[in-house]
């Protein structure tokens, strides 16, 4: 027991008062004087009776009354589990936030976390209710508000460590919502976590309801050691007509002891391809490069493994590789123009695309009369470079090509591809050529939010405003069009339109030097390939993804169909966008993708996902590699009181070692919730009344005697 005001114990000296009263008490006797004795000398008489305590019970009541009143003023309280202290003022609504992020797999953290969650459940009494919320990046309500301890304990036992990163903000906001809706008088959130520093953003606005408390239970270790693989890079090369890939893995030693000659393995499709030793000093990084191997098929699955330690998840790094797939482009130009050599109007464009290796472009140049179903088959994009009038039989083919996901880039010059109307393949309506007199035109405005121009937000990456344009075609955009660039006089330079599943861009200038020196500009070999990749919707499949992302699987599957790396039952690439399919997670769980709409999967596990789509007959399932967020490998904890201060408005001591100390519950708060002084004061008053009653009875008895 402790006391808020122990100085009042000095008042216990007053207990001497009733003792003194009893010791000096004299019997009152009627004095009778005898005349015959008046002349006898008085002899002092010492009474022994008056030095004795006549009634011990009366003395005890008087002393107890004073002691109880003094004790009440000292404001005593008991050191009890604060979760039990909360019960003294009514039923509680408790939200148990249990961190299941990847870092909780370090050592025995998860077991300790489950034990702490069970302690909270066992502390529930009476009408208390609890909700179990598991969280990583996002919170998941596992058990809704209940007083069933067995249900809560079963959910805690069934919970497992996940692969997600840590994010405290969403979990605390979820707890805020649950506590706000609760009608119980006491509201509390218990946060059980290793309190990774990377999981807390200081700018997050979180406020628990008024009077609600937050109990942090920290499972962070005082000393940690961990080796992690943070990234893997690839070096592609060609040898004897085959593509070979070299793999380099970057590692980090976050321990105080060096790592000596640790064998790091590269596995390809389940077989060990190469093993290399690595030595890394304390708190240092290192790398290991494996021998090259051939990639001849799509979705080759690879893993880099670097032993095992207390956090085994980040000792493995998963990836998936496919041969570099070229972007197949058909360049269409006017009839009678040379299709090759420096005299060709497509010479500069073909050169710019030909030198690009990431990705490589497969280019064919044909006159407009040669465009047919065969030349359009398996193309990613079509470029109309001042092509002239489109034949009537060709127009439906181009329209269908775009609607089914193909891309089209229209460069306008002297010729007009569509003389009348407003065909969907052409953005806006065309006017004639504009001659700039009294000064050359420049690009005066760009939409820097667009993917092909985003890089030029930084002036160090170059500027498109340096090229001079003596002539350009007039374009009046329609409501469905998006203007991406304008000349300095406000005239439209580049405009985009979505047609079905495809994209169309129209540029008010030809792609040769007939109207300006734009093709000789230093940014021409950069801007044009980027624009063609954009309309072709080219996306090089990422070698890996991070847990917690959502992946639209329809785009890479459609590209594989269109570019011939996967067969299809249907002839058009849009089949892959509409087909149903099955996704198998690394743990073996299956998810069915519905027909139509966006085909996407949520990546929640580390490892390789397998995807099979109806109508797509690739040799092996499409592989998606997923790894834990590198932030999870940094085990540095944040001080729990920082989260408490942000969520409750008051800071306190840190709870460590799995204890249930309340950082925001001061001794005054505990005493206020227990109010022991009131019971002492009541007992003291009862002692006073008992003493008065007993004293009156004794007084009447003495008078009668």
What keyword list fits this structure?
single chain, 705 residues, alpha/beta, Rossmann fold, Immunoglobulin-like, 8-stranded mixed β-sheet, 5-stranded mixed β-sheet, 32 strands, 23% helix, elongated
Describe the structure in your own words:
By secondary structure, the chain is an alpha/beta fold. It folds into 5 domains: 2-79 and 675-704, no CATH class; 90-221 and 636-659, von Willebrand factor, type A domain (Rossmann fold, 3-Layer(aba) Sandwich); 227-324, Immunoglobulin-like (Sandwich), CATH 2.60.40; 327-535, Class I glutamine amidotransferase (GATase) domain (Rossmann fold), CATH 3.40.50; 545-627, Sandwich (Immunoglobulin-like). It is built from 15 helices and 32 strands. Helix 2 runs antiparallel to helix 15.
Tell me the strand percentage band: 25-35%
User: Rough shape?
Assistant: elongated
* Total domain count: 5
Number of helices, counting only DSSP H or I runs of 4 residues or more = 15
Helices and strands in order:
Blueprint: E1 2-3, H1 16-23, H2 56-73, E2 76-77, H3 82-86, E3 92-99, H4 109-122, E4 129-135, E5 139-146, H5 149-158, H6 168-181, E6 186-193, E7 213-218, E8 227-239, E9 242-253, E10 259-268, E11 271-280, E12 284-289, E13 293-294, E14 300-305, E15 316-321, E16 327-333, H7 347-354, E17 361-367, H8 373-376, E18 381-385, H9 395-403, E19 407-411, E20 429-435, E21 443-446, E22 471-476, E23 482-487, E24 492-499, E25 502-507, H10 524-535, E26 545-546, E27 550-552, H11 554-562, H12 574-578, E28 581-584, E29 590-593, E30 600-602, E31 607-613, E32 622-627, H13 640-648, H14 667-674, H15 676-704
Parallel strand pairs: 3-4, 3-6, 6-7, 16-17, 16-18, 18-19, 19-25, 26-32
Antiparallel strand pairs: 1-2, 4-5, 8-9, 9-12, 9-13, 10-11, 10-14, 14-15, 20-22, 21-23, 23-24, 24-25, 27-30, 28-29, 28-31, 31-32
């Amino acid at each position: 027991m402790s006391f808020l005001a122990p100085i009042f114990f000095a008042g216990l000296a007053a207990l001497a008062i009733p003792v003194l009263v009893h010791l000096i008490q004299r019997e009152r006797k009627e004095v009778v004087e005898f005349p015959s004795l008046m002349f006898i000398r008085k002899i002092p008489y010492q009474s022994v009776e008056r030095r004795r305590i006549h009634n011990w019970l009366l003395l005890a009541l008087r002393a107890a009354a004073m002691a109880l009143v003094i004790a009440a003023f000292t404001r005593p309280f008991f050191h009890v589990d604060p979760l039990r202290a909360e019960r003294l003022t009514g039923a509680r609504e408790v939200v148990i936030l249990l961190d299941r992020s990847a870092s909780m797999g370090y050592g025995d953290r998860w077991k300790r976390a489950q034990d702490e969650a069970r302690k909270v459940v066992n502390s529930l009494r009476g009408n208390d209710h609890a909700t179990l919320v598991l969280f990583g990046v996002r919170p998941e309500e596992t058990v809704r508000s209940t007083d069933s301890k067995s249900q809560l304990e079963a959910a805690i036992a069934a919970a497992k460590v996940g692969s997600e990163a840590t994010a405290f903000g969403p979990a605390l906001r979820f707890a805020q919502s649950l506590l706000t809706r609760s009608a119980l008088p006491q509201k509390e959130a218990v946060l059980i976590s290793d309190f990774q520093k990377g999981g807390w953003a200081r700018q997050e606005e979180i406020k628990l309801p008024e009077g609600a408390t937050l109990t942090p239970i920290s499972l962070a270790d005082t000393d940690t050691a961990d080796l992690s693989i943070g990234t893997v890079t690839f070096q592609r090369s060609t040898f004897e007509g085959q593509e070979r890939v070299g793999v380099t893995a970057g590692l980090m030693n976050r321990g105080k002891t060096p790592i000596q000659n640790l064998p790091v393995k590269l596995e390809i499709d389940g077989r060990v391809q190469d093993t290399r030793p690595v030595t890394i000093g304390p708190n240092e990084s290192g790398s290991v490069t494996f021998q090259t191997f051939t990639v001849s098929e799509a979705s080759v699955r690879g893993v880099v493994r670097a032993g095992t330690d207390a956090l085994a998840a980040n000792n493995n790094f998963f990836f998936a590789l496919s041969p570099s797939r070229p972007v197949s482009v058909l360049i269409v130009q006017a009839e009678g123009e040379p299709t090759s050599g420096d005299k060709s109007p497509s010479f500069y464009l073909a050169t710019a695309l030909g030198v690009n290796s990431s990705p490589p472009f497969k280019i064919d140049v044909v006159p407009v009369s040669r465009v047919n179903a065969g030349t359009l088959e398996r193309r990613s994009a079509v470029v109309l470079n001042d092509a002239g009038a489109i034949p009537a039989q060709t127009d439906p083919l181009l329209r269908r090509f775009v609607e089914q996901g193909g891309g089209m880039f229209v460069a306008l010059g002297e010729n007009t591809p569509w003389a009348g109307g407003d065909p969907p393949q052409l953005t806006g309506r065309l006017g004639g050529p504009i001659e700039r007199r009294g000064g050359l035109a420049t690009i005066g405005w760009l939409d820097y939010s667009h993917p092909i121009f985003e890089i030029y937000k930084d002036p160090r990456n170059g500027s498109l405003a340096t090229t001079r344009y003596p002539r350009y075609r007039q374009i009046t955009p329609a409501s469905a069009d998006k203007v991406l660039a304008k000349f300095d006089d406000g005239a439209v330079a580049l405009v985009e339109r979505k047609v079905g599943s495809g994209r169309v861009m129209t540029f008010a200038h030809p792609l040769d030097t007939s109207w300006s020196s734009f093709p000789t500009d230093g940014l021409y070999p950069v801007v044009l390939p980027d624009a063609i990749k954009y309309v072709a919707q080219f996306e090089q499949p990422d070698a890996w993804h991070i847990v917690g992302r959502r992946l639209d699987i329809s785009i890479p599957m459609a590209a594989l169909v269109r570019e011939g790396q996967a067969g299809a039952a249907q002839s058009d690439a849009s089949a892959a966008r509409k087909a149903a399919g099955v996704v198998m997670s690394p743990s073996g769980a299956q998810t069915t993708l519905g027909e139509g709409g966006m085909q996407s999967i949520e990546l929640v596990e580390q490892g390789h996902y397998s995807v099979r789509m109806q109508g797509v007959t690739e040799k092996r399932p499409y592989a998606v590699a997923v790894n834990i967020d590198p932030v999870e490998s940094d085990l540095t904890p944040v001080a729990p009181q920082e989260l408490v201060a942000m969520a409750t408005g008051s800071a306190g001591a840190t709870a460590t070692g799995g204890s249930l100390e309340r950082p925001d519950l001061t001794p005054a708060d505990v005493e206020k919730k227990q109010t022991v002084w009131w019971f002492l004061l009541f007992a003291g008053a009862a002692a006073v009344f008992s003493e008065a009653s007993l004293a009156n009875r004794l007084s009447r008895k003495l008078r009668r005697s």
